[in-house]
Amino acid sequence: MKLVIVTGMSGAGKSTALKMLEDLGYFCVDNLPVKLITKFAELAYAPNSELQKVAIGIDVRTGLTNVNDALEELSTNGYSYDILYLDSEDDVLIKRFKETRRAHPLTAHGRVEDGIKKERNILSYMKEHATCIIDTSHMLTRELKAQIGDIYSKNKDYANLFITVLSFGYKYGIPSDADLVFDVRFLPNPYYIEELKAHTGNEKEVQDYVLQFKEAGMFLDKLEDMVRFLIPNYVIEGKNQLVIAIGCTGGKHRSVTLANKLYERLEKNAKYGIKIEHRDIYKDSLRK
């Protein structure tokens, strides 16, 4: 029997996550009062139960008083469980509440910011004890679905870390959410090769040109080595999102090529969520 407790910040995607787990064959119950968690687990784990995979949604709407006691009781009774915690940055949550015109459950007639602050305090225990934390701040719904599928369908053992490998152009500004920034303008620019100018780093012609220089391979080797050293240390320190930004002049050729290659290296046998994103790849074309 597989038991997953889904919780996290309001607006971070808990309901969406439960729907995705339901699509994966989980029997899902949302808004279950904390007092009923142990009783529900008893029914699910009973020898005659037909349930094989169960997901329970709990959050501040039903109250989380004594949730630590309920979880300790589950462990004492021998019921194993995972905690899936959905999180997002405060400014993203505020934007989502405003777009949907919803009130925060803790401040129905007050400011959303105040409700978020209260909710983080209440959920601190759940986040601290989470098996998996997914930050949905910069995720598309399909990306969240893919990550949940990897964890709960393909049974990948993810660390609580989601990595974004991001290419960008310096002339459009350094990404404000970047944790690590690397400048690859030291490499020859395909922009000045007439037959490559209109192409991008997603295409073989440009990739072959960029990667023919030994400095490109050396850069990738050194960068991969450093990132692989940093990842477990970031996980130990509780970091759950890492944005690695690779920039060139326009964000179309060199940065895209090297970001793609770094993503391919890190994605192999990854024990963390990872995606590739090219922020500025088509901006030159749009400006013309």
Number of folding domains?
A: 2
CATH C-level class of the largest domain: Alpha Beta
User: What is the H-and-E element order?
Assistant: EHEHEHEHHEHEEHHEHEH
Q: Report the total helices.
A: 10
Strand content: 15-25%
> Can you name the CATH architecture of the largest domain?
3-Layer(aba) Sandwich
**Derived structural class:** alpha/beta
Distance between the termini: 58 Å
CATH topology of the largest domain: Rossmann fold
pLDDT < 50 runs, ≥5 residues = none
Averaged pLDDT, please? 90
Helix content: 40-55%
Main beta sheet, described?
5 strands, parallel
* Rg value: 22 Å
Largest sheet: spatial strand order: 2-3-1-4-5
SS elements, strand count: 9
Annotated CATH homologous superfamily of the largest domain: P-loop containing nucleotide triphosphate hydrolases
Give the overall shape.
elongated
Question: Could you provide a short overview of the structure?
Answer:
By secondary structure, this protein is α/β, with parallel strands linked by helices. It contains 10 helices and 9 strands.
Based on the model shown, name its key terms.
4-stranded parallel β-sheet, 288 residues, 10 helices, alpha/beta
Structural notes for this entry:
This protein is of the alpha/beta class. It has two domains: 2-152, Rossmann fold; 162-287, no CATH class. Helices cover 41% and strands 18% of the residues. The strands form two sheets. Strands 2-3-1-4-5 form a five-stranded parallel sheet, sandwiched between helices. Strands 7-8-6-9 form a four-stranded parallel sheet, with helices on one face. Helix 2 links the parallel strand 2 and strand 3. Helix 1 crosses helix 6 and helix 8 crosses helix 9 (254-267). The longest helix is centred in the C-terminal third of the chain and has 23 residues, at 214-236. It starts with a strand and ends with a helix. The mean pLDDT is 90.
